[in-house]
Amino acid sequence: MSIEARLAGLGITLPEVSAPLASYLPVVVHGDLAFVSGQLPFIDGEVFTGTLGDGVSVEEAIPAARACGLMILAQLKAALIPLDRVERVVKLGGFVASAPGFTDQHKVVNGASDLMFEVFGDKGRHARAAVGVPALPVGAAVEVDAVIALAPG
């Protein structure tokens, strides 16, 4: 089954890609690796903002991390990389806007990790970092980047 068919079967529609907010490329392919820049959580066209441990709960932020994962897939597709070329999700880097003392970043970033497994099966299992930071661009609650291994294409 193609990844596009799998997405359709899961009822997943990829979002419209967002333009870079600064001087960088959304996706760079080098050899058989695609490096996807940090993606913000667009939900219904708006960035999900706030700080975990200060007004935003883990339960609210998990879908935001998932939205970052969806944007990663959308950016790959926009870069003309067919999702069927994904040989392995190698690593995700998750950044969570966190108040002092908040220590559940790993639970938040599971939103993106679980999506990758849901879409790609075992090829979606990956290494990961989940890091608490004091602030993210435009006040986003979460940001996720990725390293993706690509099959020859």
Automatic annotation (TrEMBL):
CDD domains registered for this protein in UniProt: YjgF_YER057c_UK114_like_1
Superkingdom: Bacteria
Database matches in InterPro entries: Endoribo_LPSP/chorism_mut-like (IPR013813), RutC-like_sf (IPR035959)
Domain Endoribonuclease L-PSP/chorismate mutase-like, residue spans: 4-140
Matching PANTHER family: ENDORIBONUCLEASE L-PSP_CHORISMATE MUTASE-LIKE DOMAIN-CONTAINING PROTEIN, ENDORIBONUCLEASE-RELATED
Name of the protein this chain belongs to: RidA family protein
